[in-house]
Amino acid sequence: MSIRKKLIAGNWKMNKTSADAVALVQEIVAEAGKQNDVDIVVAPPFTSLESVGKALEGSVIKLSAQNVHPEPSGAYTGEISVGMLRSLFANYVIVGHSERRIYFSETDAFINQKVLASLKGQLKPILCIGETLAEREGNQTLKVVQTQLEAGLDGVSKDLATSVVIAYEPVWAIGTGKVATTEQAQEVHAFIRSLLVKLFGEAVAQKVRILYGGSMKPSNAPELLAQKDIDGGLIGGASLESRSFVELIKAAAAAK
Ligand code: PGA
After folding, report:
1. Which of 7, 11, 244 has most ligand 1 atoms within 8 Å of its beta carbon, as the pocket-test mutant?
2. In Å, what is the CA distance from 230 to each residue of 63, 74, 188?
3. Fewer C-beta neighbours within 10 Å, C or N terminus of the chain?
């Protein structure tokens, strides 16, 4: 049995009005709000954080934002700070998602600022890293993952490293229905763990959770979650419906 508790996180992306978000989370709370086998996180859009946070009260499910700005306040039209998220009782934030890297030109340096600001403000970053199809086909996967991981975690202390969650998300597997094979995923997860050992030492590296993301669904989750270094999932499409999300939580509980 792993020393790491499995974590299932739902990334709702730009989906659901506040009312729809509350309806979804109420179903998840009813099914899984009291269990303690798996850590559960939901990441609704900013506009639903407050209403979803209220619906989560009294449950074990934690709230995450999908993005954050590193500055505490100021003239950054459209942006949201760590303090604003903490005031809504968010515990986690997704940082460096490939959609933000690709569509919003986020660099490793900017992502690193977000990681550091989040940790300083007691918000746990879920740092996403992963290669594109061209990079995988060009045998660049491990190099890309190493660069993104080391740059993203630059300046993170050993003490705070256990508050970071890593999500390995091969870009070619996100929303495409193409899932990495268990061997492909485990190979990269083990490599990420070896990099964490170098950065923070064995004891810390063994505590950091590394999630897989990219077309994870109830049919492929048991095999992925059985891998030694796969500590949960960051789920997009299959988190938008309570039935599949709850099935993923059950799969993680069974794989612990
Ligand atoms: P997907 O998205 O499960 O829809 O592939 C995963 C993610 O982007 O986090």
Report:
1. 11
2. 22, 39, 10
3. N
